[in-house]
Amino acid sequence: MKKVLVLAEVRDGQLRNVSLEALAAAQALAEGGEVVAAVFGADAAAHAQALGQHGASLVYTSDHSALAQYTADAYTQALTQIIELAGPDAVVLGHTAIGRDVAPRVAARLGYGLVSDVTGLEAGPVFVRPIYAGKAFQQRKFVDGKIFITIRPNNIAVGAADPAKTATVVPVELDIKDLRSIVKDVVRKTSGKVDLSEAKVIVSGGRGVKSAEGFKTLYELADVLGAAVGASRGACDADYCDYSMQIGQTGKVVTPDLYIACGISGAIQHLAGMSSSKVIVAINKDPEAPIFQVADYGIVGDLFEVVPLLTAEFKKV
Ligand code: FAD
């Protein structure tokens, strides 16, 4: 492909790691062609250096006030205008709340194709993506036309930053109008210090944790590991934790390097959100629990005995 555009995302002033993964995917797609990026927000230009060091030759920026917080209306207009300006053959975004929302809108507007939730790229290019709630993987070969892809966080390796590389920064005057919604305030419910969708390690609890108090045991292990805390829907339904922590078919889809499932039975809807984790450790007192069928390591035991032991051991490292 001659030119590939990446829409980079910034959260709490930080460039999201999935945007660097998108740049790595864009370089693989471009096969020596041009990789450019776009980034929005008041401090957009501040991220151009990192984007340049990870492979973007040019970064379109806009500090338009309508883009300070994501709205479908404003981002659809902005991304459409950037694409009309840049004329890329492919557009790569993270398969995040923003990517999932804006990619199909702009793709439909501009007549681009869309392959979503890509977990791997092969020569061709061929896009690999999970189907049937993660039970199988589909390979979709690109034939012709222009295309959007969204990539699932934590699946594409990010190369090291090259300090010798720089990007040309191009501030763009965007014409954003007739907005049907504006964001006045964002109240974020977080599961802890680490963002669940990009976490490398997740400690997750189910109904077996038995109470909100019981989750403290999981937070202690997560603190030692620098992990995020997630949950099954069973735990969320029982009010042990917030729904923003739910992992699964109707929750977040995660691909950490390590997923520690504590007191989670392993229902198909939960597996849909975590089964492509690189290493799965299951702690369950029922040796027949289905979670053991997907686990790389299984510990049959009471989580209230096993988790504190793990925490104590990891503290020593
Ligand atoms: P349970 O199935 O009750 O399992 C609890 C486990 O804890 C058991 O295996 C038990 O042996 C173990 N246990 C108990 N005490 C201890 C202890 N002291 N130490 C160790 N182990 C212990 N679920 C999701 O998670 N995510 C989703 O996105 C999701 N979406 C759904 C969508 C639909 C349309 C439907 C119908 C269901 C969905 N579900 C989802 C619900 C799913 O079917 C299960 O009901 C849910 O995942 C069960 O949660 P659980 O494993 O925590 O609870």
TrEMBL record:
* Pfam families in the record: ETF, ETF_alpha
Q: Where is the Electron transfer flavoprotein alpha/beta-subunit N-terminal domain?
A: 4-186
Q: Which residues form a coiled coil?
A: none
CDD domains from the xrefs?
ETF_alpha
Instruction: Tell me if Flavoprotein is a UniProt keyword of this record.
Output: yes
Alphabetically ordered keywords of this record: Electron transport, FAD, Flavoprotein, Transport
Q: Does the keyword Transmembrane apply?
A: no
Q: Which family does it belong to?
A: Belongs to the ETF alpha-subunit/FixB family.
- What is this protein called in UniProt? Electron transfer flavoprotein subunit alpha/FixB family protein
Species of provenance: Brevibacillus brevis (Bacillus brevis)
